[in-house]
Amino acid sequence: MMYLKGEKMHIFYSIVLGIIGGLVGVAIFGLSGYMISLSFFEPPFFLIILIIAMIKMFGLTKGTAKYMERLLSHDATFKMIGRLRASYFKQSVNSAEDTHSVRYIQKLTSYFDDIEDYYIRIIYPYIVAVFISLILTVLSLLIDPKLLFILLASVLVMLLLMPLVISSISGKLYDERNSAEDTLFTQLYHYIHDFTNLFVVKEDTKVNQNIKKTYKKITKNENKEAALDAVIDTVSLLIQLGVIILIIVLFSGDYPLLIPMLILLLMSFFELAIPVIKPASKYKAVKARVEAVSDTGESVTEDKHQSLTLSNMTFRYPSTKRDVLTNINIDIKPGEKHALIGSSGSGKTTLLNQLIKQSDAGIMPQHLDFYNATVEENITMFNHFESEESEMKNLLEQFELDHFNPEDYITSAEYLSLGEKKRMHLIRMYIENKNIWILDEPTASLNTRLRGKIWEEIFKKDTVIAATHDLSHLEQFDYVHYLENGTITESSSVTNALQQDGPVKEAYKRYRDAL
Amino acid sequence: MKLNLNLKYAVLYSIIAIISVVFYIAFGHHLSRILESIVMNTGLEISEPLIYMSAFFVLFILTDKLYNLFTGTIANKSIEQKANQLIDSIDVKTQRESERMINALLVHLEAYRPYETSFVPTIIKTAVKVTLIIASLFFIDGFAASILLFTAPFIPLYYVLVGLQTQEESVKQATRFDNIGTLFLNLIRGKDTVKNTNSKETVIKRLEADNKGFVKETMHILKYAFQSTMMLEFITILGIGLVALEVALRIIIFQNISFYTAFFVLLLAPEFYNALKVLGTEFHNGKLAMGSFEKAEKIINKPKMNTSYRGKTESFAAEAESLSVGHGDKILLNNSDFTFSKTGLTAITGESGAGKTTLLRTLLGLHEPVSGQLNVLTKDIGYVSDQVYFSDTTIYDYVSANNHSEDEVHGILNKLKLSASIDNLEQGIYTPIVNHDIPLSGGEIVRLKMARVLINKPEIIIMDEPTEFLDAETEQLVMKYLTELKETSAIIAVIHRRQLLSIADSHYVLDNGELKRGDAV
């Protein structure tokens, strides 16, 4: 299809082909109706043969038009979705939104389904149906102006009035469905992650019942949608019946020969128009949602400078009322290695995130990202970094990941254990080869031997800042900071901290006391 | 392909479908009569057939929509049952694959829904339609019926020959499309790493290249798929054309057919072919939907937790008889007999990964042992786990679990020296915990978790690393409280630090599948 450039032309041609296919399809029925009437009045035989040949020709045209239309519209859709994805990704890389939640991803999936629906199932068939209706309405003038009125009235009712009237109902059903799914998701998520607790306090059955209650709402919503479909079909078919009766009553005197043709024509036209009504009624609701999600949120411009300094920094998340970090002062000079310790929830990750924002360093975040691609692509970020296969193989072996080959395909992030992710991400950072490393719990979920290997690699770096619970290698750091409730309560060289009484010494003592 | 429908409903569906199609045929019959009278001017009074025609058409609409509504309701109910089975299969292990579960319920089951709401009813309706149309045409015009019967097999035959050939390829492409979609979602999810490694441009190029390659290959395959649809269209039009020719020949040359018959045949023939075409496309959709269901089915068919291993004992907190506990092939406790006393603190230690937490979960009934018997004193067991998860709640709701008064909550918070920091909060014990955001320190969170369990004064208290994250002062406080508590309750605790062993009454070490007496007590 070299001669069609860009999706717009694709869509234009698909609409034209859709209209041709639809009209020809309707014409086939009309012609066969006309043929029978004619046959009984001793027409020249070649005329009948001609009509039958035309029916076949039309059939071939319809098939070909449909074939080309489908090719073009699919091609356009796939290209459009690909383009939308790339541009959505471009925007979201710079947005501040946390995209790790499963719900976010799920909403995004249904958003892209909605976009597909919006063009392919809502707008496109509607345009085709409207054009076919208009052409048929105009052609009806050839027979009788009364016919034009009948057709125009039924087209207006079906393609304009009904979608408008139903719009509020189907919009409500659409919103109802989305909100039920939101509730279901939240309940399910809590149930799964809090299961142990709920089981122990014997609340699990109650929560289970609540989730089922929410699911009932989805069933009800589906049933209501089905009922709405039935109502739309019934009303449209009744209109169809009314039109048939009107034609018989009004025109049987004037044009008896044309009646079978008109009736077959109309029945085939209604068959084409009825399925468009309900999707068209959803136009507003879907459009609103597509527009709401396509705004990916504020993008943050980050000022990257090489310094790893925070002075008097106080931080709170936009949605909370409480400072997560208060009056933080930290200054990391090139060549220094800093450890950040403190209990869970004390603000270590938040502090690291502030440093990550302003520095060009190798990062091991708390949440490690892997993609459904090969091991090699994951490690080199789709060949953004260069690495020889032999080097990669050596690294995999070094970190006891040699059960993976660089060309192995990782189907999903669940495929890797937490410990494997830590090590594979460290290989990624090794190949990236930055001078500064910022690490969040680099040795969590690893055994003692692997912890040793990881620390060894970390201490080869010039400048390091690591948040950790694992104090086994604390003595190899230069400085240590103790964080409690969002404030640094102790900050000194490791040697000093381990000599004077304070939270660091206390924590270290407790770490050594472990069995 | 199985229909996933029990016989009772299959029969009921068929009956409604038969009634509905008969009404449609009756409508066609009267319409043909009316038109015959109009075109041939036979002088038949048309007002009576007009009423019949209208009545049958209305009846057809009603029964047809009744069919849709009825089958839809049954199908949605059946989907809900499957959803409930999925919800019931959630247990303590689900957490490790929570996305799989959530996708099964919200994505795969939804992708399967049309199979029951649309595919199954359409198959039954179409089968009825095809049979009844051919049967009624045999009464009216045997030749036409023979043409239909002769050409009809070409449609399924064509599907078998060409459809199946491209189907495998198109399923493969659908998987590939899914993979590209998943990669896009993964990249959005993992955008931080893309940003941290400055690889945005590379990644976008990759996404675009992927999509380009996909579009090219898919269009190639779709061409064949669409060509096969086009061929079907041609077969159909050939069939309809043959019928039209037959009708025309009989009218003009043989003059042995009435207008009524001619029109009736030409009204029903396209319905017949359309039904066959629908059958073909639905078959394809049905196959795809079934694939989605298989993903959900895997979770549903997971064996249910068996509780027959649990018995009751009066003399101990817990008593195991040749108990074996494991994960898959890995045995963590091998054929072990032990008893834990009704009061006092039982300490369990062992290397990380030895299975201590799993043993605790077995005691709780959260983990099914491989074999053996476990008798417990009571079902009233409290558990302070090593994990922190808060559903959206408030501090009061969390501690009281809707079973305790405000005074009781204050009492337990006091005992664990939590009152001061919680009263400091703007909303006190009614401070909401949303999105896991709780304005307390790590040590305070540990005590809050304890408060929730200890407020119930359970007879057995199970704890996983109870003093982790506590500073020395609070640790003393918690130990004092536990010393008091163990006079009346059994405390079974996995501990990592020597400090706690000093108040233990018995000590076990879990090592290499054995639960040995420890030397600390």
TrEMBL record, chain A:
Residues 14-276 form the ABC transmembrane type-1 domain. GO terms for cellular component: plasma membrane. The keyword Metal-binding does not apply. It is found in: Cell membrane. Residues 308-510 form the ABC transporter domain. Pfam families: ABC_membrane, ABC_tran. Its main location: membrane. Keywords: ATP-binding, Membrane, Nucleotide-binding, Transmembrane, Transmembrane helix. One of its GO terms (molecular function) is ATP binding. Gene3D superfamilies: ABC transporter type 1, transmembrane domain, P-loop containing nucleotide triphosphate hydrolases. The chain crosses the membrane at residues 12-37, 43-61, 123-143, 149-169, 226-251, 257-277. It comes from the Bacteria. InterPro entries: AAA+_ATPase, ABC1_TM_dom, ABC1_TM_sf, ABC_transporter-like_ATP-bd, P-loop_NTPase, Type_1_exporter. This is ATP-binding cassette subfamily C protein CydC. It comes from Jeotgalicoccus coquinae.
Automatic annotation (TrEMBL), chain B:
InterPro entries: AAA+_ATPase, ABC1_TM_dom, ABC1_TM_sf, ABC_transporter-like_ATP-bd, ABC_transporter-like_CS, P-loop_NTPase, Type_1_exporter. It is found in: Cell membrane. Pfam families: ABC_tran. It comes from the Bacteria. Residues 318-521 form the ABC transporter domain. GO terms for molecular function: ABC-type transporter activity; ATP binding; ATP hydrolysis activity; ATPase-coupled lipid transmembrane transporter activity. Residues 10-288 form the ABC transmembrane type-1 domain. The chain crosses the membrane at residues 12-31, 51-70, 132-155, 224-245, 257-276. May be involved in multidrug export. Transmembrane domains (TMD) form a pore in the cell membrane and the ATP-binding domain (NBD) is responsible for energy generation. This is ATP-binding cassette subfamily C protein CydD. It comes from Jeotgalicoccus coquinae.
